[in-house]
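Let's practice the habit of predicting before peeking. Look at the sequence and jot down your guess about where helices and strands might fall. Then scroll down.
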Amino acid sequence: MLRRRRPRRQPPVPDDLGVSVIAIDVDDDGRAPDERAAALEQAWRELRAIVAEAVIWQDAADEVLAAISRREPLAELAPRGGPLVRRFCALRARLPESDDLELRSITDVLGPVLDHHALMLSSSLDMLAVDWRSERLVEELERIKGLGAPAHRLERIHSRLAASTYAGGVESGEQLSTTETTAEQVEPL
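Done guessing? Here is the structure:
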């Protein structure tokens, strides 16, 4: 009734198939090179605007987090913090998508930074709402010192984009890292 099946044997693959690897670049977006260049330039302009706005909101978020750390009343902080959370989420949604590797390397770092900022504010406000339940929550709230390494990362991106001589953005060869950094590591990008 129940029998074990015999495995099927695959014919061995010869070591040399007599072929070489060919790379094919398919350009199927249907736009002329001028249109693609204009779209890429527009994406870089959008990215610069998003980063500049994020730096401004980041300063406001640091102020709210400092007030949360001081355990100021939630009734005063929620109307300031809630719109900031929504703003960071909206900036994340507006990040341009592109096939340009340099632009993508920046948006790959910037997206998680904006998500972090929104989550940090939201979580901190949530903890402030229930800080009466636990002394441990109070201790954690008092330890909040701002947005941390992701804030430094955003500032580095902003300074590199602002100082960039390349029309598109970051100079060739510069790398952006998604790993955590300390204050001493902020200078190199």
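How did you do? Residues 15 and 119 are 52 Å apart (CA to CA).
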